[in-house]
Amino acid sequence: MKLVKPKKNLGQHFLTDLNIAKAIADTVDACPDIPVLEVGPGMGVLTQYLKTKDRKVRVVEIDSESVAFLHENFSFMSEDILGEDFLRMDLNKVFDGQPFVLTGNYPYDISSQIFFKMLDNKELIPCCTGMIQREVALRIASQPGNKAYGILSVLIQAWYNVEYLFTVDENVFNPPPKVKSAVIRMTRNDVMDLGCDEKLFKRLVKTVFNQRRKMLRVSMKQMFPGVKASEEFMTGELMTKRPEQLSIQQFIELTNLTEAELIKVGLIQK
Predict the structure, then answer these.
(1) Which letter does DSSP use for residue 105 in this model?
(2) Contact 99, 125 (CB under 8 A)
(3) CA atoms within 13 A on the CB side of 78
(4) How do strand 127-133 and strand 81-82 relate by DSSP bridges?
(5) In this predicted model, what pLDDT tens digit does every residue of 83-124 receive, in sequence order?
(6) Burial of 212 (0-12, 13-18, 19+ CB in 10 A)
């Protein structure tokens, strides 16, 4: 069967270096004894090494041409080739509610959406590895005080330990992307409860980073539409900082302070 033609609209950049494919496959070894779901296998360059692992492997692919290629060349795993959109899947059904490792050479344009879905299913995904745009990987792994530190850094690091593993050059792909790539691994930490309202935490983090250059006393006004927060709240110590200066623990503290203030001004019920 002829090779699959990369499709720009799907953000396909097929990895051609087998050594790198094997190295990515080996990142799942940090979380043994559970199945693996690979997103966007394309022509199976990573799949062939994942299949050498002593565990169940399934792949999910939205591109019908790639699905046909996989069925022809990986016929031995036909039942494990899922021709679906990962972002719309019910992940509880993939391995009958069993936890699994998520991995893949992720399409650049939806990698953030993939990781937001991972966060929504964190009880099912104790480990996530794979290759993404280097800039996004640096963002995810970034620490407070760094310009790359942002929404993804905070929301992911609240629940996962992040390892930036290695950088991948452009010339090992067909077609070569215009940016470098990187391989990362995210492993669930011990946090079972943030100690604050999770939905409010997520909303607050997104709100303040949308005005990342402004002090919190300015950006936090958006959390109080139509009303004025108290002077005591707005002049608190955290309000003199910019969002990139706050640790995850400080974001949790700010979420709890904000919840109390939202109750006080009548925007949410106790």
Answers:
(1) B
(2) yes
(3) 5
(4) unpaired
(5) 999 999 999 999 999 999 999 999 988 999 999 999 999 999
(6) middle
Q: Is the per-residue pLDDT at 265 higher than 90?
A: yes
- 37 phi and psi angles, rounded to 5 deg: -115, 120
Nearest in space to 217 (alpha carbons), one of 203, 231, 197: 231
Q: Among 17, 196, 184, 201, which residue's Cα sits nearest to residue 102?
A: 184
Which residue in the block uniquely carries the two structure tokens 């110590």?
A: 237
SS3 91: helix
CB contact set of 215 (below 8 Å; sequence gap of 6+): 239, 240, 241, 242
pTM over 0.90: yes
The pair of structure tokens assigned to 208 is 């303040």
**What's the gap between Cα 172 and its chain centre?**
23
Q: For residues 126 and 227, what is the distance between their CA atoms, to the nearest angstrom?
A: 41
Mind listing the pLDDT tens digit for each residue in 144-160?
A: 999 999 999 999 999 99
Angstrom distance (rounded) from CA 2 to CA 227: 63
Would residue 251 be called left, alpha or beta, if left means φ above 0 and alpha means ψ between -120 and 50 degrees? alpha
Q: Among residues 115, 96, 95, which one has the least CA distance to residue 104?
A: 115
**CA separation for the pair 28, 50 (Å, rounded):** 8
CB distance 163 to 185 below 8 Å: yes
Helix (H) or strand (E) holding 64: helix 64-73
Cα(174)–Cα(42) distance, integer angstroms: 12
Token pair, residue 15, equals 């990895």
203 in Cβ contact with 41 (< 8 Å): no
The residue ranges of DSSP E strands in 62-124, in sequence order, are 81-82, 101-104
